[in-house]
Amino acid sequence: MTVTSGDGEHREVPFSVSVARPDGAEVVIAVAGEIDLTTSEDLKETFEEALQPVPGKLVIDLEGVEFCDSTGLATLVGINDRCNTQGVALRFLPSPTIRRLASKTGLSTLLPLA
Prior knowledge:
The protein has 3 helices and 6 strands. With 114 residues, the chain is an alpha/beta fold. A 4-stranded mixed sheet has the order 3-4-5-6. The protein has a two-stranded antiparallel sheet with strand order 1-2. Strand 5, helix 2 (70-86) and strand 6 form a beta-alpha-beta unit. Helix 1 runs parallel beside helix 2. The longest helix is centred in the C-terminal third of the chain and has 17 residues, at 70-86.
C-alpha cells in the first residue's frame, strides 16, 4: 500500500488483507504487515464487506501482522464488538506481536484469541 505524507512524500506500507469463504458458514480475513492509522480503515472496510451476508463464524488471521499501533488495536476491539452485536462467532489467530500487545494491554481477556 502506498501512502502520501503531509509533505507529499510517498512511501510503501507493508499491508495486505484478503477474504476467503472456505465454506458457507465461515469467513476468514487474513491480514499481513502493519495495522496502524494508515491501514486500519482498509481492514474495517474489508470486515464490513465480509459481513455481507452475515456469516455464522469469522476468523481474523493476524499471523502475518508484524506491527500494530493503538489505532489497530481499537480496530480489533471494534470488530469484536460488532461481531458480538451481530451474533457472529469470532476467533482471532494472533501473531506473536498481536499476542504480546493483547497481553500487555489486557485485551487478551476481551478478544477471543486462539
